[in-house]
Design brief:
The chain has 94 residues and is an alpha+beta fold. The chain has one domain: Alpha-Beta Plaits (2-Layer Sandwich). It is 36% helix and 34% strand. The protein is built from three helices and five strands, in the order βαββααββ. Strands 1, 2, 3, 4 and 5 form a five-stranded antiparallel beta sheet that branches. A hairpin with a 6-residue loop joins strand 2 and strand 3. The longest helix is centred in the first third of the chain and has 16 residues. The protein is globular. The termini are close together.
Length: 94
């Protein structure tokens, strides 16, 4: 399995719009066949900092996700809400 952490600092005035738009992304991603888990998490210390925590069955599942209709439609729209887009990190369990 592959774990992904994707952190984003959202502009203060855009937090509610960001949350509204990510609901569909999370629900559709959770329904994908290779998805083990896909959640959006909010930092307790900084309410503008969000992190998608994802676990995928394998690299093929990630590739299918990255080319899915909901991902390619929603993710580009989220860019307007982002102040800092941190590098996406991929992990495997040891």
């Amino acid at each position: 399995m592959i774990k992904i952490l994707a952190k984003r600092l959202v502009k203060e005035e855009c937090v509610e719009d960001y949350l509204a738009m990510t609901k569909e992304l999370v629900a559709a991603s959770q329904a994908e066949p290779g998805c083990v888990t896909y959640t959006l998490n909010r930092c307790a210390e900084n309410p503008r900092l969000f992190c998608f925590i994802e676990i995928w069955k394998d690299q093929a599942a990630i590739e299918a996700h990255n080319t899915s209709e909901h991902f390619t439609r929603i993710v580009p729209q989220l860019a307007k809400y982002i102040e800092i887009n941190y590098p996406v990190e991929h992990y495997t369990e040891v």
